[in-house]
Please model this.
Amino acid sequence: MSVYSGKPVTIARNIDEIYAKVSDLSQYRDMVEQLPAEQREKLQGIEFRGEAIKMDAPGVGELVFKITERTAPTHVGLNAEGCPIPLKLSLDMADVDGASTRLTPRVEIQIPAMLRPFIGNKIQEAADKFGEVFTSLFPTV
Model:
């Protein structure tokens, strides 16, 4: 498996609050329903379930990322179901100062060595974007 670590991001929330949000996906359903219509449109094809996120992936079909690992309050891991290649997303959390948390996203994917030079940079970009998502999910209070 190739591992791509995203850029760490620091969120101005304590680690327990962050862990509670990322380890229970069901609460995002209500969050999405409260978004303005134009923002909800950007999330078409994405559905949050209690333990999983379902999304329509162009060229692949339906992908389901299911939470398979939890280590409170420092780690959440999700495995892709229905993906033609093994794929795993994970998020590692570290307390910075009691009021802030550093999140480091990771993408693990099994791709042939000869394809890594062609798609590795795209996977790295996805890992970085995965981390950036959390800066919008946890706005500064």
Q: What stands out?
A: The first helix runs from residue 15 to 22. Helices lie at 15-22, 27-33, 37-42, 116-137. The mean pLDDT is 88.
